Amino acid sequence: MQDSDTHRPRIAVTTSRRSGWRIFPLVALNLWMAGGRAMRWDTAREIDMGAVDAVIIGGGDDISPELYGGRLIRSARMDAARDAMEQGIVARAFERDMPVMGICRGSQMLNVALGGSLHQDAYATHRDSRHYRTILPRKTVCIEQGTRLADLVGTAPMRVNALHSQAVNRLGRGLRVAATDPGGMVQAIERVRDPFAIGVQWHPEHLFYAHRQQQLFRALVTAAGAARNAAPQLARVDREI
Question: Which residues pair with 39 in a beta bridge?
């Protein structure tokens, strides 16, 4: 491995065993462009949390309603093993004050892992939200003022893609809404305080050519680098105490 690679913050990226082969390279590209290095994590390969500086919970199948006390009201493709894996990863990341980013399903998992719930059929609940299913930036989202997301991308309406069928309902502990669509459906959530934790309902990895989407990955890598640099200092303080 080249020496320059070792200085890049290491980001674990969770993926589906079925589709990770095509999704992971795109997320890895975005992280590389932002100065980070991606490491794939799925139910077939586990990564030591001590070996990474941040986590991305990636997109994929719907989350089982069993995780938040819901009832399955329609057919959906789910992955119970991945649900359990990612719920544990989010919990351990927060215990370690590790930066976290959720993409689509990952944003929903971030919310559920912190005690929130989901709309299983988001468009049946939000009938004024236009139903897009495309990797092209056709959906408009409105950024909430005073949020971390607004600091990163500004408050002007943003065009994004949309592939989801579920969406955030009741917020998890310590989270707030960072963006919605014109129909009121939650499109981004974030942690109220540090460390960095943000979830977006869209897929910024497909929009690598857009500056505002690049800012999301840069912010995560910056937070990961800060956490990595702080770890040795905290260890020295503990030894001195």
Answer: 12
By CB neighbour count within 10 A (0-12 exposed, 13-18 middle, 19+ buried), where does 147 fall? buried
Q: Which of these, 220, 236, 237, lies nearest to 13 by C-alpha position?
A: 220
Q: Which fold has domain 8-240?
A: Rossmann fold (3.40.50)
For residue 32, the 8-state DSSP code is H
Dihedral pair phi/psi, residue 110, rounded to 5°: -55, -45
Per-residue pLDDT of 66-103, as tens digits, reads 888 876 665 556 788 999 999 999 999 999 999 999 99
pTM (2 d.p.)? 0.91
Give the residue numbers annotated as catalytic, written as ranges: 104, 203, 205
Sign of the four-CA dihedral 47, 55, 81, 79: negative
Q: Any idea where the domains of the chain sit in the sequence? A: 8-240
Question: What is the DSSP pairing of strand 10-14 with strand 37-41?
Answer: parallel
